[in-house]
Design goal:
Blueprint: H1 10-23, H2 28-34, H3 39-46, H4 54-64, H5 68-80
Helix pairs in contact: 1-5, 2-3
Length: 81
């Protein structure tokens, strides 16, 4: 990446995913099971230590019962605010 190229803040992405999870009343353990992800992997995403791939975002959105676009829109809204 070149200098000055904007990058998505992994902490912000994790905060949005965690907010969706809490709004659904799910624990990390339950959501990771529904999404077929390791709980430590989900924890790393929510803590901003890892960025989710599109596949992971797809699995999480399905497990949360929301569209991927709803999660992306929430991330974009945070970026604008």
């Amino acid at each position: 990446m070149s200098v000055g190229t904007p990058q998505l803040d992994p902490v912000l992405v994790g905060q949005v995913i965690a907010r969706f999870r809490r709004e659904k009343g799910l624990t990390q353990e339950v959501l990771s099971g529904l999404a077929d992800l390791g709980r430590t992997h989900l924890s790393a995403i929510e803590n901003g230590e890892r960025k989710p791939t599109l596949e992971t975002l797809y699995r999480l959105s399905g497990a949360l019962g929301v569209s991927m676009s709803a999660i992306v829109a929430a991330i974009e809204k945070e970026l604008e605010g």
